[in-house]
Write a structure and sequence with these properties.
The protein is mainly α. It has helices spanning 2-24, 36-67, 78-87, 94-108, 115-146. Helices cover 74% and strands 0% of the residues. Helix 1 packs antiparallel against helix 2 (36-67), helix 2 packs across helix 3 and helix 2 packs antiparallel against helix 4. It starts with a helix and ends in a 5-residue tail after the last helix.
Amino acid sequence: MITSIFKICDEMIKSCDIDYGDLKSQNIKNDFFEDYTNTRLVNSFFFNFAKLQDKIGAKLFRQVLYDLKEIDDKNLPMIDILNILEKLEILEDLKDWDTLREIRNSLAHEYPFDIEERIENIKLAIDGYKTLKEIYKGIVNFYQKNNTLFK
C-alpha cells in the first residue's frame, strides 16, 4: 500500500516539475494568457499541485504514521495527524501545511478573467510547490529511517 502511494506521489512530482520548470522560465505578465498554451500550462500545474497535495495529506501522512505505529486509527482528524507530524519533526511548522491549503483554496476559487489574481496565484503556487516538495522529502526520509522494510 505505502509503496504505491510513494510511486504515485513520485509520478505527480515528475509532472509538476515539468510544468514548474516551464512556468519558472516564463515572464508572467498580463499578456502571458494571450497564448492559450500558457493557460493550459498553468491549468496543468495547478491540477497536479492540487492532486499531489491531496495525495500527501489524505493518504500518505496517515499511512506513514499508521505503518510506523505512531497511530492505530487512520480516521483521526487532520489536525491530530498534523500535530503528530510536527511532534515527530516531519513537518517543521503546521503553518506550512495551512499555507498550502490556503493556496489550494485560492486556486479553486479564482476567476480566470481576473488576470492579476491569476498571476498572484501562479506565484503563490510556485512557492507552495517548493514547500510541498520539501514536506514530501521529509516524510520519505523519515519513513526510510524508521522502517527497515522500506526499499
